[in-house]
């Protein structure tokens, strides 16, 4: 606050007192506003009612018969030169593919899932070094190449599974993997399992509401556990001949039994109650 030099000491004193009173008033007003805001906030929080709700879980299961058999067949060949083993592998692979198609398997159900060319090495065991400096070690030498062609076959007609397993070996496949059974389109049975799980949860919620003496309200939350898809079921173990050798065809193929698979859904639903 500025004072004029012409003001008397008495006037200056009164002006200073007035300024101090105004400043004190501003401070008290600010403090009172802060207290009022804090009280209102505390009152609002104290009177806020927690949501009245509970959660229940429901489970649904659907048994489904597999409609797809999946098997892997591989052709492994070896030769001193890349071109030779590739040609040999192509010839045998084409024979396997031709046989599979003759069995009525559609082209869309046959795919290559692996094709590799790997060198074959011969390693030399050098005598242990007993004095320094040690003589140079003889590096391994490439003696040939291996070509591995692996195919995945989907079989929809289970009556042909045995014949296909036998036939691919006779046609030139020397690695046959396990046969697995699965569902081609699991979405519908999965939706059926989910609907059953939801109905199960709703029934649990109604029973719980009656036990608590409250009225069941609307659903406010939903969660479905992961999974729900059928796991492949393996029927037999195939054994590869390895090293490009012929795999001996079994005298009688094992009986294939796809059985049934279970698709499960587990849900959690949150409900309001009054």
From TrEMBL:
Q: Which Pfam families match?
A: SIMPL (PF04402)
Q: Which InterPro entries match?
A: 26kDa_periplasmic_antigen, SIMPL/DUF541
Query: Please, one GO biological process term?
Result: DNA damage response
- Give the species this sequence originates from: Candidatus Sungbacteria bacterium RIFCSPLOWO2_01_FULL_54_21
Q: Lineage from the top down?
A: Bacteria, Candidatus Sungiibacteriota
Protein name according to UniProt: DUF541 domain-containing protein
């Amino acid at each position: 606050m500025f004072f004029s030099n012409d003001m008397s000491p008495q006037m200056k004193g009164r002006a200073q007192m007035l300024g101090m009173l105004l400043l004190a008033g501003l401070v008290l007003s600010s403090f009172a506003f802060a207290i009022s805001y804090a009280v209102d906030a505390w009152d609002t929080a104290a009177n806020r009612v927690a949501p009245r709700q509970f959660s229940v879980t429901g489970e649904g299961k659907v048994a489904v018969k597999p409609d797809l058999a999946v098997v892997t067949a591989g052709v492994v060949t070896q030769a001193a030169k890349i071109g030779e083993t590739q040609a040999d592998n192509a010839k045998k692979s084409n024979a396997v593919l031709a046989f599979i198609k003759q069995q009525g398997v559609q082209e869309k159900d046959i795919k290559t899932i692996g094709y590799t060319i790997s060198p074959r090495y011969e390693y030399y065991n050098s005598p242990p070094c007993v004095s320094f400096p040690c003589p140079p070690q003889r590096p391994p030498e490439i003696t040939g190449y291996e070509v591995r062609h692996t195919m995945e076959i989907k079989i929809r007609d289970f009556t042909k599974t045995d014949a296909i397993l036998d036939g691919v070996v006779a046609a030139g496949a020397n690695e046959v993997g396990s046969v697995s059974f699965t569902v081609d389109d699991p979405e519908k049975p999965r939706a059926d399992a989910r609907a059953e799980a939801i109905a199960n949860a709703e029934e649990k919620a109604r029973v719980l509401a009656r036990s608590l003496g409250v009225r069941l309200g609307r659903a406010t939350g939903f969660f479905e556990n992961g999974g729900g898809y059928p796991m492949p079921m393996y029927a037999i173990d195939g054994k590869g001949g390895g090293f490009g050798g012929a795999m001996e065809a079994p005298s009688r193929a094992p009986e294939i039994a796809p059985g049934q698979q279970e698709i499960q859904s587990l849900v959690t639903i949150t409900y309001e109650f009054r």
